Amino acid sequence: MKYIDDYRDAAAARRYASAIARVTTRPWTLMEVCGGQTHAIVRFGLDQLLPPAIELIHGPGCPVCVTPLALIDQALAIAAQPGIIFCSFGDMLRVPGAAGDLLAVKARGADVRIVYSPLDALRIARAEPDRQVVFFAVGFETTAPATAMAVSQAAQQGIENFSLLVSHMVVPPAMEAILASPENRVQGFLAAGHVCTVMGYTEYEPIARTYRVPIVVTGFEPLDILQGVLMCVRQLERGRAEVENQYTRSVRRAGNRSAIERIREVFEIVPRAWRGVGEIPRSGLGLRTAYAAFDAARRFPITTVATQESPECRSGQVLRGALKPFDCPAFGTRCTPEQPLGAPMVSSEGACAAYFRYRRREVPACR
Amino acid sequence: MPMTPGAACPTPKTDQSTVLLGHGGGGALMHRLIDQCFLAAFGAPDLAERHDGAVLDLGGARLAFTTDSYVVHPLFFPGGDIGTLAVNGTVNDLAMCGARPRALSAAFILEEGLPLETLTRVVASMRAAADAAGVQIVTGDTKVVDRGRGDGLFVTTAGVGLLEHPATLAPGQIRPGDAILVNGDLGRHGIAVMAVREGLAFDGPIASDCAPLADLILELLAEGIALHCARDLTRGGLTSALVELATASRGHFQVAERDVPVSEIVQGACEILGLDPFSVACEGRMVLFVKSSDAPRALALLAAHPHGQGAAVIGRVTARWPAGTVTVTSPIGTDRVLEMLSGEQLPRIC
């Protein structure tokens, strides 16, 4: 298939792998930011093609994984209310909150629907004016423009039975938080190509300068990732720390201006708690005051029950790149996709899910 | 900007006290339900075989016997409807035992308010599908439930077939060296139903692969092909079928991803939605295990049949360790172990 097979070519992959081996003279630790990249690396075994001196660690770019627990619990409580149609991306349905997940709420009778776009939820609101339709607006800069579009359309068309539970996040502050952490091991980043398709990469330039770390905007296919690694290692070996763009077929330096304008019209930058990581200043998108009427958290105030955190789940360290999923003592035994301790085990972009799906036989306890 | 140290995750309270949709997804959850609920209660040796149907020696005849229930939303989709599924699904389960399907039963659970015209259309397509598969629908049952207590129409069919040859098709017959074949490209049914249900538009039309497969199996056997095992790919797709058969046969299967046929439209849809075409449902596809020297002839026979035109050899059974696993070679030449999904595949966020 065009645009797919071209980037999954065995001979080209081998050429990139030997080029990486040739330029590498000492150990380097790189972090791929996006969970989509993590899955490609694990599924295609790209790390096995790299010289042992190159270590890839997995970043926080899994929107499902970092959505705060309190918000998941709020979602479960709102979805369980009578008369509500709760719309969500499919990925969120299996994420464990303190009282089960959205699939379990659905099994108990709630009207939980999978949508593919916030505009689908708006369409449902138009079709069912007597019911309250709530959209669970999660994700990074990639999904924010569509959410913004739904909100501004709802405002223009006066659709009052539509609201959103918002947990949008932005990526650069999280990368900065990782670099500033005392436990940081990251020497170079593969930045998320899709996020940069929307936002461009000017925001990353001060990060590269301040922390002296190369950042390569990278795509998601095997050859994209191998080329991104090569570009990053070349910079490291030459002592450079710049932002480079591997994903030129999709990303422009200034990003997609109309998408950025949509986001800015509807959202403002707010502090946001990242599940497993903690609060990161200026890392979230919240509805502006002009659109506060669409905030489901205001429309359906929920007194959240204090949730008990398990000391056993290590997903915070996994999301910060401090731990590989295999190093978690609960991996594959007390934490599985059917009985998850944390979100990374059930999200299609979660590092633990990738290791469970493609590598679990490497862990003796899982055989 | 230092981060708060210490991981934060909730104590799990996964709801295991109720049935979840994932219990019907053909993955690990469903297998656990079968083990812990059905096998624990019924425990018959034929059931424990976990084949698509049971083969029974009754009065000197070898009979295959199977049953299946059909729930699909919407009831009508490009390439078929709940009626064609109900006939072909049961016909195919009999075919996978190596039987010639002879007779079916059909039981209907109808929801009050269902337009009779809908029922008439479904029944007409059942008749057409039965004629095409060479079976008769010989007995049946009808129940009506209150409005709101059914999804329009549920159909259950059971079927009996006759084994007319001494061959046994079963996971235990799979041998190292066997070639692994499929009779066509994967995933059309799952994507076609999803496209109609969710209102998704892809580049071009996509129709379900729903088809009867008994003719293909019987023809291979009649031509003397050493066919060791066959499994139709339904829920859970190729992944579930291969993992189940590798586990049951204690064989090791080596499959080349590049050789597994997937149409551009299905691959494109899967790339967009974050689905794995290996795990998308089919209704007219099967995986076959054939003695390797017979593989070229089997491939030619399949390809000459309307329901086998996209047939391909996708891998082989090896004597390698680890037994009971499936290894997939990716297009870039790396290997990974194929694992059954836990429950339903859910579309991703971005």
Helix and strand topology:
The complex is a heterodimer of chains A (367) and B (350).
Chain A: H1 10-23, E1 28-34, H2 35-44, H3 46-49, E2 54-61, H4 63-66, H5 69-79, E3 84-88, H6 102-107, E4 111-114, H7 118-127, E5 132-139, H8 144-157, E6 162-169, H9 172-180, E7 188-192, H10 193-199, H11 204-211, E8 215-218, H12 222-237, E9 243-245, H13 257-266, E10 267-274, E11 278-287, H14 296-299, H15 315-319, H16 351-359
Parallel strand pairs in A: 1-2, 1-7, 3-4, 3-5, 5-6, 7-8, 8-9
Antiparallel strand pairs in A: 6-11, 10-11
Chain B: H1 28-42, H2 45-48, E1 54-58, E2 61-70, E3 76-77, E4 80-81, H3 82-96, E5 100-111, H4 116-133, E6 136-145, E7 153-162, E8 179-182, H5 188-198, H6 214-222, E9 227-232, H7 237-249, E10 252-256, H8 264-273, E11 286-290, H9 295-303, E12 312-318, E13 325-329, E14 335-338
Parallel strand pairs in B: 5-6, 10-13
Antiparallel strand pairs in B: 1-2, 2-7, 3-4, 5-7, 8-11, 8-12, 9-11, 10-12, 13-14
Structure report:
The complex is a heterodimer of chains A (367) and B (350). By secondary structure, chain A is of the alpha/beta class. The model of chain A has no long low-confidence stretch (mean pLDDT 93). Chain A starts with 9 loop residues before the first helix and ends in an 8-residue tail after the last helix. Chain A folds into 3 domains: 130 residues, HypD, alpha/beta domain 1 (Rossmann fold); 148 residues, HypD, alpha/beta domain 2 (Rossmann fold), CATH 3.40.50.11740; 52 residues, no CATH class. In chain A, strand 5, helix 8 and strand 6 form a beta-alpha-beta unit. In chain A, the strands form 2 sheets. A 6-stranded mixed β-sheet of chain A has the order 4-3-5-6-11-10, sandwiched between helices. In chain A, strands 2-1-7-8-9 form a 5-stranded parallel β-sheet. The longest helix of chain A has 16 residues. Chain B is of the alpha+beta class and 350 residues long. Chain B folds into 2 domains: 112 residues, PurM-like, N-terminal domain (60s Ribosomal Protein L30, Chain: A, 2-Layer Sandwich); 168 residues, Phosphoribosyl-aminoimidazole Synthetase, Chain A, domain 2 (Alpha-Beta Complex). Chain B is built from 9 helices and 14 strands. In chain B, helix 3 packs parallel to helix 4 and helix 3 packs parallel to helix 6. The two termini of chain B are 27 Å apart. At the A-B interface, helix 1, helix 2, helix 3, helix 6 and helix 9 of A face helix 1, helix 8 and strand 14 of B.
